[in-house]
Amino acid sequence: MSRAQLFERITDQANRPNPYPLYEELRETRVAPQDNGSFLVGRYYDVMALLHDPRISSDLHNRGPGLPGADRAGDGPESFLKLDPPEHDRLRRLTTRQFGPPHSPDRIDSMRGELAELVTNLVDGLDGKGRIDIVDDFAYPFPVSVICRLLGVPHEEEPRFHAWADALVAAIDPRRTSADNEQVKAAQQAQMEMAMFMAGLIEDRRRNPGDDMLSGLANDSGPDGQLNTVELVTNSILLFIAGHETTVNLITNGMLTLLRNPDVLERLRAEPELVPKAVEELLRFEPPVHLLGQRTPIVDIEIDGVTVPKGSPLVLALASANRDPERFVDADRFVPDREDNQHVGLGSGIHSCFGAPLARLEGQMALAELIRRLPNPRLVEDPPPYRPNPVLRGPRHLLVDCG
Amino acid sequence: MGSDVRIVIVGASLAGVRAAEALRGQGFDGSLTLIGDEPYEPYDRPPLSKAVLLGIMPPDHAALPYRSDLDAKWLLGVRATTLDLENNRVVLSDGDAVEFDKVLIATGVRARPWSNSSEAALDGVFTVRTCDDSRRLNERLSAGPRHVLVIGAGFTGSEIASVCRERGLSVTVTERGPAPLVGALGGVVAAVAADMQRDHGVDLRTGVTVTGLDGDSDGRLCRAHLSGGTALDVDVAIVAQGSIRNTDWLAGSGLAAGPRGVTCDAGCRAFDINGIVTDNVFVAGDVARQPHPLYDYQLLALEHWGNAIGQAEVAAHNMIHDGLRRRPHLEIPAFWSSQFGVNIKSVGIPTYSDQVVITQGSVADRRFVAAYGFRGRVTAAVAFNQGKWLDFYRGLIESAAEFPPDFDVMDRADPFEVRPSELPDPAVLSHGPTVAVTGHLPTERRVEFVSLPK
C-alpha cells in the first residue's frame, strides 16, 4: 500500500496495538501527502520545528473548505487548545495563574498527600483479587477524582463526570465523519450537560469561594482581567478532558510496558527513586497522545521540497518523532534511566501540555504504588484490547494476574 | 585516549565543570584536575542577580549538580598565576605547579569594579558576580536601605533594579546610553525596556554617569554625584558596568589572550600570539573569543550560560579526538533574562544588525518578538514574554533567511514596520591594534603585544 494511505492505516483499528512500524515507514519520507488532502510529518526535528512555527495555526477556521476537520470549526466556543495567539495566550495565561508558577507555585505539589491517599485506597481495593483490570480498577477512576478535586467538583458528582468524559472523548476520534451522527449527538449532549453543570458550579464558587482552582478562576482578577463564564466553562471542560484520558493511558501504557519488560519492573521495585525518570521515558516510548491533527498552515510552507498548501490539515505524529533514531539512541528500546530525553510526548511550544506537572506527578505516584504493592503481576493478554481512538491511544482493558 | 594523559581545567565554574563531565562521559580515563579560585564547590550564577537577591533562594542552593563519578582532583581556593607552555604546567598562587598534557582555560570573567578604589571600598558599594557578592547584597537589601543606586542598566543592572522594586525599595538607575539594555538589544527594543522600568517605579536616568561616591565619617556610602551636577543621597550602590575577562594570568604565556578574551578557533583550540592554532590548549566559556561562521567569522566573546556549556562540550570532545573527528562549536548564541515580570529571551546576535522589525505580538502589552536583520538576512530575534517561538527564529538565522521575513504569521504585529535597529555598525572596528608584527625574515616574523595608549 502506498504512503498516500498511511494515515488510513495508522488509524485502522487493526494497527492500534502496534502502530510503530507504520511510523517507521512515515519517517522514511519527511512529509507524506495523503489522499484525503492532509500531510503527515513524523521525524523528530521536523515535528519540533513545526511545533514552534508561528505560521502554523491550531484554529480549524484556517482550514480550507472541504478538507478534513473544516466542518468542525465553529462547533462552539473554543478552549485555548484550539485558539491561536493572542487569544490563546490570554486565556492560557489567565488559567495558568491558578495552576502553576509564578502565581500558584504550590498548587500541584500541595496535592501530593491527597493523591497518595487516592492511590493507596485504590490499590487497597485490589488486595486479594487474583485478576485485576488496571484500566477499570485503577487507571480510570484515579485521574477523574484528581481533576475533580483540583477543580473543586464535589466528590458525589464524580460519576457524572465519568459518563461525560466517555462521550466527549469518543468525539475526538479523527476518523469521525458527519455520518457518525449518534456519536456526535452524544458528545454534544454531554458537552451541554457538563457546561450547564460547570456554569452552576462556577456561580456557586463566585458566592462561596474555596481554595480550589475553579474558585480561583472565577474570582481572580489579574492584569488580563477575568475569564467570563463562557470562557471559564469551556476551559475547565478542556482541563477535565485533556487531563483525564491522557493520564489513564499514561498509567496503563506504563504498566503494560513494565510487564513486557520484567527486568525493568524488578529494577524499579528495587530503585523506586528511578520512577520519575522511567515516567519520562514512558512519555517518550508510549506517549498518551500519538497524533496532533489540529494544525493548519496559514501560508504555503515548504518542507524538504514538498509544499504544504495554506489551509491543509497537517498531522504531527508525536509518537513517531519520539522513536526517531536520528534523535534518540536505541529509540525503540525502553530505557528507564535514559539521559538526554527531550521527547515531544507532551508537545512543545505554546501549546505544550498545560497539565504536564500534574500528569507527571499522577503517573509517578500511580506507577510507584502499583510496582510496590502488586505481588508478582503477570500480563494475561498481549496485546490487550485497545480503545478505537488512534489519537489518545491506550488499552481498553489491561488484565493482570497477581499473587 | 590512554589513561596516562593528564588534563587540567583552569576555572571550576559552569564551563569547567561541564567540560569535566563531558570528558568523563566520553570515556576519558586519565587524570583530571580542576583549579578554582573560589573556596566553594561550583555554583550557578543566573539566580545570583534574581532569586538570591529577592531572598527567596539561599545562595548555597545555587550549587551546580555534577556527575558523581567525576573522579577529579579539585584544587579550590587557589588561583592559577602562570601558564607555562614551555614546560606544560600551570603555576598556582600557593607556589605549587600542576603539569598537564592538555589544558582547558575556563577562567571566565569578574565584575568590573568601581574605577575609584577608595570609593569602591566604601561600605555599601557592591558588585554582583560571586555567591559571596550576592549573599552580602541580599543581607543589605533585606535590612531596608532608604535609597539604592544601580550604576549601569545592562542585564545585571536591570535585573537588580527589578529585584529592588519587587522588594519595595526606592531605586535610581543610571545608564550612560540612551536606554537600558541598549548595548545588547539596540535602541528600538531598549525603549521598551526603559518604559518597563519607569512603569515599575524605577527612577531611570539615561545619558547620565556617576562621577563620584561619597562616604560618611564611618566609611559608609552616603551620596552619589551624577554628571550634570546633581547629587543623590544613597546608602547602597551596585556597580553593574560589565565585566573583565580573567586573562591577566596568561600574560607572557604566548597565547592570543588579552582584555577581549582568549582567541580560539571554532573547535575551542586557543590561538597563540602569532595566530597559529595550538594543539593542547583549549578555551571555553565567558573568557573564550571564537569566530562564528554565521557572523562573518567575527570573533565573539559571549557571557551566556548556554554558550559556556556548548563550548565546554566541544572543547572536551576535541581534547580527546583529533583530525576529522573534531567538532566545531556552531550553536546560535542565546540568552535570557527575567525582570519586571517579563521574560526576555534572545537568539542570535542582535548587535549584528542594522534593522529590526516587530514580527509578532504587541509592544504595548510587552509580549512580542523582534527580528533583527543585517544586509537583508535574519541575524537575531528577541522575545518579550514570547520565548516559545524562538526555536523558529533560530531556524531562520541558521538558514540565513531573508530579512525582513516575507510571510504571514499568527498574531502578526501591526504595523509591520522595518526600522533601523539603532546599534553601532558591526562592520566598524571599535578598537585599535594591540599587537605589533616584528622581524623581517620568514623565520623571524613574530607578533608582540603592545600596551594600549592611555
Automatic annotation (TrEMBL), chain A:
The keyword S-adenosyl-L-methionine is assigned to this record: no
Region entry Disordered, spans: 58-87
Keywords recorded for this protein, A-Z: Heme, Iron, Metal-binding, Monooxygenase, Oxidoreductase
CDD domains referenced in this protein's UniProt entry, alphabetically: CYP164-like
Short name of one Pfam family: p450
PANTHER family listed in its UniProt record: CYTOCHROME P450 YJIB-RELATED, P450, PUTATIVE (EUROFUNG)-RELATED
The protein's name: Cytochrome P450
TrEMBL record, chain B:
Obligatory cofactor(s): FAD
The UniProt record lists the keyword tRNA processing: no
Protein name listed in UniProt: NAD(P)/FAD-dependent oxidoreductase
Organism: Rhodococcus pseudokoreensis
Residues spanning the membrane: none
Native organism taxonomy: Bacteria, Bacillati, Actinomycetota, Actinomycetes, Mycobacteriales
Residue ranges of every copy of the Reductase C-terminal domain listed in the record: 335-406
Pfam families listed in its UniProt record: Pyr_redox_2, Reductase_C
InterPro entries: FAD-oxidoreductase/Apoptosis, FAD/NAD-bd_sf, FAD/NAD-binding_dom, FAD/NAD-linked_Rdtase_dimer_sf, Reductase_C
Domain called FAD/NAD(P)-binding: residue spans: 6-311
